[in-house]
Amino acid sequence: EPGVTDNKIVLGSVTPVSGPPSLLGKAHMLALKVWEQDVNARGGINGRKVEIRQDDDGYVPQRALQGIKRLNEVENIFGLIGTSGSAMLQAMLPYINEQKIPTINAMAVAASHFTPPNKTVFIVGPTYCQELSTAMTQLVKIKNLQKEKFALVYQDDEFGTDVRCGYQKAIKALGLNSVSEIAFKRGTKDFSAEMLSLKQAGATFLTSGGVVAEHSMLMKEAAKNQMPMTILAVHSAHLTPVQALAGAAGDGYYVADYVPPLTDLSVPGMAKFMGLAQKYLSADEVKSMNRYSITAYIGALLMEDAIRRCGKDLTRACVVDKLEATKNLGTDGLASPISFSPSVRHSPSSVLILRSDAKASKFDRVSDPVPVVD
């Protein structure tokens, strides 16, 4: 089988480690480094040591496709445990399907990744639509925000379409007053016109559908225009650099996510993960970790479990069979138990709401995990 010898398994990751979204890819790769060293210290998987090969897609779909081709044809990987953003995985899917590469995606989840199901691709975590609709519904109820004037700013691509889906579901389910929906092009740096438009519309609740830096830009514009707003963002705002970029405006915003903060060591899985990180990473590397490190580690544990259940006779087909037979795989609280079936390639996780404490450079829980709203 590709990437398998008597004593080695080669796995791959296509993630952005350059450009603005590099915060995501670098944190992802740090977690894979932790897992790789830990699993090898435990003797490998059924006697085979793990090696990880990485390709930088720069958050560009065409580069993602080139990356998976290189990993498969040059690096000879067995499976894929890192798949970048929504549009990047979408670009890779035809090739992944053609080559029948076992693939775990726990970074950016969109409905198009599993509708219809792709035979060898397994998705962990809610879609942005599920995540946002669940969190927005919960936040409105918890904080009694039914009378606010709601607005959405979202990126004009596959990612943004899924974010908009969640916003519209919550608006419809609760009968809320939506006063504006504004799309922006990828790479937009100036949101002054968008925020001025929201001010004129009287918006008091902003749903932020940015990738990373866009969240900070929107918050700063709101503060600049003296717009007191409740701000809810998708999980890409669950990053301390977003807090820092926003400055004083980055305190108090809410985030929808399906993994707890890195600082929440009351979660058994988090305490274990952070202990391993401190063992295998430098102090600077530990500081560079974020919520994408957690999801990468979850995906790696899922792949490890499937490979281990295949025993010595390791094939891509066997791993796919074991993944689709996964039932309630636990992660010690890092996420909800993971399950798939022959007809289901998506395992959504319960959603929780976090609140930014910018002064302390951390995030606090506002709610317990809640099952996703379909």
Architecture overview:
The protein is of the alpha/beta class. 41% of the residues lie in helices and 17% in strands. The protein contains twelve helices and 13 strands. The strands form three sheets. Strands 7-6-8-9-10-12-13 form a seven-stranded mixed beta sheet, with helices on both faces. A three-stranded parallel beta sheet has the order 2-1-3. α1 packs across α9, α7 (213-224) packs parallel to α8 and α11 (291-310) packs across α12 (316-324). The radius of gyration is 20 Å and the shape is globular. The model has no long low-confidence stretch (mean pLDDT 95).
Strand order of the largest sheet: 7-6-8-9-10-12-13
Mean pLDDT: 95
Number of strands: 13
Shape: globular
Regions with pLDDT < 50 over 5+ consecutive residues? none
Q: Beta-sheet strand percentage?
A: 15-25%
C-alpha Rg, in Å? 20 Å
Sheet/helix structural class: alpha/beta
Count the DSSP helices: 12
Distance linking N and C termini: 39 Å
Sheet bearing the most strands, described?
Answer: 7 strands, mixed
Helix content: 40-55%
What is the helix/strand order?
EHEHEHEEHEHEHEHEHEHHHHEEE
Characteristics:
globular, 3-stranded parallel β-sheet, 13 strands, 7-stranded mixed β-sheet, 374 residues
